[in-house]
Amino acid sequence: MKNSIEINVKPNYVPERSSPVRSYYLFSYHITIFNRGGNQIELLSRYWHITDGHGNTEDIHGPGVIGEQPKILPGELFEYTSFCPLPTPMGFMEGSFRMVDDSGNEFDAIINPFRLVAPQVLN
Question: pTM above the 0.90 mark?
Fold first, then answer.
């Protein structure tokens, strides 16, 4: 079942809400979850493993996403945008969504690692 879930991530630096002089860098990330399987799925919870540019890590666990536990029909998708503040202009996120299908089978849909990078780091 987990192979039938496609997760795409588009990270973005938010300069107008960041303050490099205070070591505060805000990133948004837009998630698209596409259900390529034949069963309805429900997103129960999320897990994020966040690493900043100094190698410090934080693990976040919580119910649903953005206050919802969306149900996604076969062939449908669910999208949302959330945010991640970091003390460094670069970091990484990865994690998983705990899902359940309409037969009651729970599984983890893996979110591959993605980079959070402020443009000034690339210069």
Answer: yes
